[in-house]
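Notebook, student rotation project (T.W.).
Task set for the rotation: take a protein with a known small-molecule partner, predict the structure of the complex, and write up what can be learned from the model alone. Partner molecule chosen: zinc ion. Sequence and SMILES entered below by T.W., checked by me.
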Amino acid sequence: MNREKSPERWANDLSILLTQVLGEARFPVDVERLAIEYSHQVFPASPITRVRSRSFRGFEGALIPKPDRSGEWGIGYADSLVSKGRVNFTIAHEFGHYLLHREKYPNGLQCRPEDMIKWDSEYNMVEAEANRFAAGLLMPLDDFRAQIPEKQNADLHVLSTCAERYEVSLTAAILRWLSYTRKRAILVVSRDGFIKWARSSEPAFKSGAFIKVAGLSPREIPAGSPVARNPDVVGIVDPESLDRGTWLNEPVMEHSLISDRFDLSISLLTLEGTVPVSRVEDEHIEDAVDFLGRRTGW
Ligand SMILES: [Zn+2]
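Predicted structure of the complex:
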């Protein structure tokens, strides 16, 4: 095994393989089958022999060595995961651990929701790598760019179409778009009227456009947001232009999905132009939830 191979390289190599075998119409990726067949062919002494839902409590997925020391591995995902999109991402994440980390973690890994939001330790670096692999495998950038070119804006209908194409959650598809777009855009995920986390595209972040989520103190979504004004509506709300001062020191177009599932809502804020916007200097910048760091709550 090439232990130096990056998550992106692993995902890219597997994408090339899938395209060769299945052709261009190869989405969504059947990640369960891929994990089992690929591991049997390439690592016959330590294959993945079982992928199944488990009654996990407190974590969402796990890479588990077979207790009989046969060398076989299993992937488990929580039976509480309600959508196929989240199941797919979790399996891909654990497959990433298998490819990248199984030698370093012979006892396997258990992946909790909260591990995804703290990336300042070696363990969380491992989680970040698994997430980058999963994103690259399920949503290859070249294919995603063909759906939404990097200079083109997106709305929640277009992004929902991408989520269906790759059979991932809408949040995963938005995060993937934010990872490469040249547009300034910000994803805000809220629950019960409070911001849980936010993520800017790089052009937005570099222009100073980001949403502060300071430490543990909850921050309410602005009263002018459609999410705050329509708490009983469920579904995608028509995009709305909001004045400077509502979310940022500039106007934004808010695309909202108000959800009753876990009371999570999505606000995609798209911004005009590329002129840097000045921000309050001492604000704590919620860091860098690097791509797909937040599986939790999708
Ligand atoms: Zn993990």
